[in-house]
Amino acid sequence: MKYLELDFTLTPHDEDATDLLAALAAQAGLESFVSTGSGMKGYVQHACFQKDVLDNILSDFPMPAVRITYAVREAEDRNWNEEWEKQGFAPVCIGDKVCIHQPGQTGLPTAKYQILIEPHQAFGTGQHQTTGMILRRLADMDLTGKRVLDAGCGTGILGIFCAMKGASNVFAYDIDSWSVRNTLQNMALNHVGNIDVMEGDAALLQGRGLFSLVLANINRNILWNDLPAFSSVLASKGQIILSGFYSEDIPMLTERAESLGLNFVNHTENERWASLLFQK
User: 53 — phi, psi (to 5°)?
Assistant: First the structure.
């Protein structure tokens, strides 16, 4: 997974300004931040970095008394999650419906669906608010016989859950080769075989046919760009679940979806993160 490191300098250094910058910089694709003595460092995948978006944010920063500059360099190509992976993650359970855990963990709550996840530099254990919101939606849905698209599959957790719940087929893709390999590994752990996984982006959807359900847990800029592709492969009466963005992004994504003929059904929120449900 190739990352860029952005080193931000704030003059004068102000914690409130740093917090605000981190929140806004997420719109440009940045996904993690580390405080420094003069500001912060942010990390973003090569393919997700929206430099023009970031520059526009800085030119119109809401705290004009704070001057912000940044430098970009290639981040070290290593497994940024290595220590976290060694420590593992606590089981994530949604009532008695589903429990996500690593192999070998004991004393687990009883749940209808037990999903094994071994995360290797891929997003999606159910711990993040966005993944959790989608899992809660899926837990209450009848997926029997449905064809599902999992865009930006990460660990493969969403597609695996759909397959367990009776989906006829899942097509999953991710721009990150680590995620593709991790999805294949987690499919094997859960003895799930009806998922096709590929490395790439929404261009892979051409010629793939129609889907009854589209899942996309990606940052808002990619969602904005890829919504036309998602809509084009969504069957009549099909549903699309979006997440990976903040509550303040709901209006722009809703407007975009409705312009493509998708009907807003509802939304959920969890600690400023949001999820949207549309139907065609």
Answer: -65, -45
Which of 95, 99, 197, 221 minimizes the C-alpha distance to 148?
197
Task: Please name every residue paired with 169 in a beta bridge, in sequence order, or none if there are none.
Answer: 147
Distance CA 277, CA 243 (A): 9
pLDDT at 71: 96
Encoding tokens for residue 106? 């004991």
Determine the length of the chain: 280
Residue 47's CB: how many other CB atoms inside 10 A? 12
Which residues neighbour 1 within 8 Å (Cβ) at sequence distance 6 or greater?
Answer: 45, 77, 80, 121, 176, 177, 178
185-203 mean pLDDT: 94
* Residue-wise burial string across 70-100, b where 16 or more C-beta atoms lie within 10 A, e elsewhere: beeeebeeeeeeeeebeeebebbbbeebbbb
Q: What angle do CA 133, 80, 103 make, to 5 degrees?
A: 60
Which range, of 133-142, 190-199, 215-224, averages the lowest pLDDT? 215-224
